[in-house]
Amino acid sequence: MARAIVRNSMSSNTPEATNWHDELSRAIRDPRTLVERLGLDRSLLGAARESAELFGVMVPESFLARMRHGDPNDPLLKQVLPIADEQQPATGTTDAVGDLDARRAPGLIHKYDGRALLIATGSCAVHCRYCFRRHYPYGDEPRRLDEWDDAISELAADSSIDEVILSGGDPLMLTDTRLDQLFERLESIPHLARLRIHTRLPVVLPSRVTETLCLRLREGRLTPIVVVHANHPSEVVDDCADALERLVASGLTVLNQAVLLAGINDDADTLAELCTRLANLGVVPYYLHQLDRVEGTVHFEVPESRGRQLVGELESRLPGYAVPRYVREVPGATGKVRL
Ligand SMILES: *Cc1c(COP(=O)(O)O)cnc(C)c1O
Ligand code: SF4
């Protein structure tokens, strides 16, 4: 009965669906609007336009609303404003984490025991300048439902896999109808037990966290785990904090992963505040990632020695469950490597 009700409200035309689709269509997509809306110096524009050629600008209104007006050093702005450093000659690669070697079928990456990752879509609601997937060949991955057939067959044929991770891009960019279709196909594979969703939308487009979505996740056959992505305490306020509360109140396990980013969160006070805010909302700080070195992102890198020192400080200040594991991805490793 509950499932039937959920199914009927899955149409993309419900008011709650209209809200997030509208907000997404109104997201800022050019450097000039971003600079003007925040009252920033227009001298930032030249470099921003050049670097936006490499990876476009995308910033939802909700995320913009949490930035300080007139401050070029705002930690949220720095995550999304293209700058000249992105054009530095390459010391990084385009596939730092070995994803392309672990591609088992279109859209399916299987690197670690028991867990396989589906690239559910290439699109995101925000373009993070440090993103390690900025060079991923998303154009080669499935778009239509039938293009998932190979990935689903691979999953069904490998009973060692009990967890599927929906990743991307951002899987919650899919409409409820498309998500439901994908969930159903996964639910029909008997050896799957858990469904994990790696998403930044609750942070950058909190209106995506609808009652319909929470209900569908809770009522499905697979145990849901939602892993969100916030890097700075100023992200975890207002409508984002409300969205995280909705997820937690729905009975979902909610974890956070952050990336250690130079000039944004590479100090102990900022990280401690981030972890405390998350813990207060019932969200567990799961991973603090060492930046994956890909072209155009190297200026965000923090030395590992500094990262270790910071996590050491968190350990002395916070409850154990509020300290994220400091990890990096190493091609060929059997899991994330602890630092
Ligand atoms: C990070 C990652 C996972 C998940 O690793 P956990 O340690 O379980 O969070 C799974 N598959 C791939 C390809 C990954 O990059
Ligand atoms: S939301 Fe995630 S996948 Fe998308 S650009 Fe940001 S870091 Fe990359």
Give the key terms.
alpha/beta; TIM Barrel; binds pyridoxal-5'-phosphate; 2 domains; 12 helices; binds iron/sulfur cluster; single chain; 10 strands; 339 residues; ten-stranded mixed β-sheet
Mind explaining what this structure looks like?
The protein has 339 residues and is an alpha/beta fold. α1 (2-8) packs antiparallel against α9 (211-219). The chain has helices spanning 2-8, 15-25, 31-37, 45-54, 61-65, 149-157, 176-187, 201-204, 211-219, 238-249, 268-281, 304-317; strands at 103-105, 108-112, 115-121, 163-168, 194-198, 223-228, 253-259, 284-289, 325-328, 337-338. α10 links the parallel β6 (223-228) and β7. It has a 10-stranded mixed beta sheet. The model is unreliable at 1-11 (pLDDT under 50). It is globular. The structure holds pyridoxal-5'-phosphate and iron/sulfur cluster.
Helix content: 25-40%
Structural class: alpha/beta
* Share in β-strands: 15-25%
Work out the helix count.
Answer: 12
Mean pLDDT: 92
Radius of gyration: 19 Å
Please name the fourth-level CATH homologous superfamily of the largest domain. Answer: Aldolase class I
CATH class annotation of the largest domain: Alpha Beta
Q: Which strand order do you get reading across the main beta sheet? A: 1-2-3-4-5-6-7-8-9-10
Q: Characterize the overall form.
A: globular
Please give the CATH architecture of the largest domain: Alpha-Beta Barrel
Which stretches of 5+ consecutive residues score pLDDT under 50? 1-11
State the total count of DSSP E strands.
Answer: 10
How is the quaternary structure best described? Answer: single chain
Bound molecules: pyridoxal-5'-phosphate, iron/sulfur cluster
Determine the N-to-C terminus distance: 48 Å
Please give the domain count. Answer: 2
SSE run: HHHHHEEEHEHEHHEHEHEHEE
> Major sheet, described briefly?
10 strands, mixed
Write the CATH fold name of the largest domain. TIM Barrel
